[in-house]
Amino acid sequence: MSLDRRQFLLWGTAAAGAALAPGLRLVELAQARSPQEAASKLQRWGLLIDITRCTDCDQCVTACNEENGLVGPTRGHGRPETDSQWIRSVQLRDKRTGHAQTLPLMCQHCEHPPCVDVCPTGASFKRDDGIVLVDRHSCIGCRYCVMACPYGARSFVHEPLTGQKPDVPRGKGTVESCTLCVHRIDRGEIPACVEACNRDGGKAMAFGDLNDSASPIHRRLQSEPSTQLRADLDLNTGVRYQGL
Fold this sequence. Notes:
By secondary structure, the protein is of the alpha+beta class. The chain contains 8 helices and 9 strands. The chain has a 3-stranded mixed β-sheet. The protein has a two-stranded antiparallel sheet with strand order 2-3. It is globular. It starts with a helix and ends with a strand.
């Protein structure tokens, strides 16, 4: 091997490392709320959604798209650069009565997530505080997790992406889904969807620590009836619904 070739390879390796550097945040997210504060098994973050207050205003979807950079440049004919949607509005209708309800549907952040069980590389993982995430650098795009999720909550990125947000690394050929705005949680903030719902919507969404007996969300779950989607699967979801 000539010196020039050796130098070229060394430079290439260094450049590759530099390109991957932003993705190191994903590893940090798996282990900590910040470099100093570890995610704790004593906590379990979750959502409570009262669909009787859900006005189909779409504020949660809009806020999610803007916060996570899911709305970007178009790729011709007005089509968005990405078709990913981490929250979607779903309408349910009772076949017997015709009664219709609308609810926001996202990753349910299961205690026993099927997406994690089937992932061959460990790219799908669950933090100690219950948030289910995808490490884009380990994801090989096999989409086993997409098939395993009973909620249809995962998206595959088919197109190159531009204008990404530093706190939300994304990439072509990988799978993604709702992160509960983990970057906001680690700063002591609430998810963007909850903030928008309580500011501009019907105040249908509540966020908090499901394990904290003093938290409003814990007290409501203890005193008011709630429903897990596909409770028969025994996944113990972190997202619960009222009025369903």
